[in-house]
Amino acid sequence: MELGEDVVRHVESLARLELTGDEREAMRRDLQRILDYVAELAALDLADVPPFAETRPGGGVLREDAARPSLPASAALDGAPAAAAGHFVVPPAIAAAEDGDA
Predict the structure, then answer these.
(1) Most CB contacts within 10 A, which of 13, 29, 32, 44?
(2) Under a CB-based contact definition with an 8 Å cutoff, are residues 3 and 9 in contact?
(3) Is 8 exposed, middle or buried (0-12, 13-18, 19+ CB in 10 A)?
(4) Bridge-partner residues for 84, per DSSP?
(5) Half-sphere exposure of 12 (CA within 13 A, CB side)
(6) Which domains can be identified in the chain, with CATH numbers?
């Protein structure tokens, strides 16, 4: 599948980008390489490949899930830029309305 400029411009619009002509061409080439690779993968005969294969030697061996003591609050707050009453202090994410409207 050959990637046209209209598709690249659509992706540019969806991503809210403003690309120059050179940047748009570079994006088209990158996207084309990705699509070509996906086409190569789609052409592989995977009939004899199981749907999942463990990639780590020894299988999916994980450590035992056991409770253990956590970091003391004072140690966690030591590196905080601001703390009060045993809690992190962060700036408000949404400014409060000055006239009382929410």
Answers:
(1) 32
(2) no
(3) buried
(4) 87
(5) 17
(6) 5-42 (1.10.20)
Structure-block tokens of residue 6: 């209209």
The pTM of the whole model exceeds 0.85: no
pLDDT, tens digit, 9 for 90 and up, residues 34-57: 999 999 999 999 998 887 766 777
Collect all residues with Cβ–Cβ distance below 8 Å to 77 and sequence separation of at least 6: 83, 86, 87, 88
Res 69 pLDDT > 70: yes
Secondary structure percentages of the chain, helix, strand, coil, to 5: 35, 5, 60
At 88, which helix (H) or strand (E)?
Answer: strand 87-88
Residue 58, helix vs strand vs coil: coil
Task: Read off the tokens for 15.
Answer: 């991503």
Distance, CA of 40 to CA of 1 (rounded, Å): 12
Cα–Cα distance, 24 to 30 (Å, whole number): 10
- Residue 76 and residue 58: Cα distance in Å, rounded? 36
Please tell me the distance from the alpha carbon of residue 36 to that of residue 52, in angstroms, as a whole number: 24
